[in-house]
Prior knowledge:
By secondary structure, this protein is of the alpha/beta class. The chain has a single domain, classed as Rossmann fold, CATH 3.40.50. The protein has helices at about 15-25, 40-45, 60-75, 100-120, 145-165, 190-195, 195-200, 200-210, 220-230, 250-255, 255-260, 280-285, and strands at about 5-10, 30-35, 50-55, 80, 130-135, 175-180, 240. It has a seven-stranded parallel beta sheet with strand order 3-2-1-4-5-6-7, with helices on both faces. The chain is globular.
Amino acid sequence: MNQKRNIIITGASSGIGAAIAKTLTDDGDHVYACARRQDRLEDLKDYGVKFVHPCDVCDEESVKSFFAEVSKLSNNIDGLIHCAGSFGSIGPMVNSQSEEWWGSLKTNIFGTYLFVKNVVPLMRAERHPVIITFAGGGAFNAFENYSAYAVSKSGIVRLTETLAEELSGQGICINAVAPGFVATEIHNETLEKGINYSGESHYSETLKKLKEGSVPISVPVDLVKFLLSSKALGLTGKTISASFDPWNNENFMDNINELNASDLYTMRRMNLINLTEEDEMLKKTLSTEM
């Protein structure tokens, strides 16, 4: 009989976080769910989630209070799934409110920092603990009018890669999930801001995907389940796209050591040697000695 795991999930009151909490509870895991909205957290109890606790992920005292309650029930945490996050400041950066822009980074980056910092002492190497963060739009590409979100998500990716190095000696694996466009409440922020702030391209794309369909929420949920499983044992320091990367392929699972040794699924600077044949002229020109 498999040992039941103790899993902490932030941002569990809605969207992907709620879906993960319900799924893992159905699978028999002990889920410790938190979010800012107590009323929405209470709804999780109808799905069998026994522990829910309000928490503001970017408030250190609130985070410490949450972990104090968790520690009363268990001092062995097998997984942290940090889903909490928001778009925050939307619109051209030069017209943004400074506190709102900074608040986006506090929620997305500082919140990730606080939860990882507090969960690591509760993890035991022999149980092969796993930390999962969430990347998103703008982590690897420019995201016009969403500068705070893009910067914070790219920061989460770099933090994830850095922590993979720091935590490797403790037997803790940490990876980021890029969920793709999933129709959740976060996109209401785009609609509420309107086309003048969100930009015509992203606003129109959001409307289209919300109407015609996007990445099913089951896809990132299944990726999280995979990263928590023995099939992904040892994989660390990567950002995996839920809807694009072949993570559910046996060849992926059989080559985890090779993946860890490569730059695949990581944030790296493009150098001349990385240019394709289409950029051969540029490569040749810039490689010429002056």
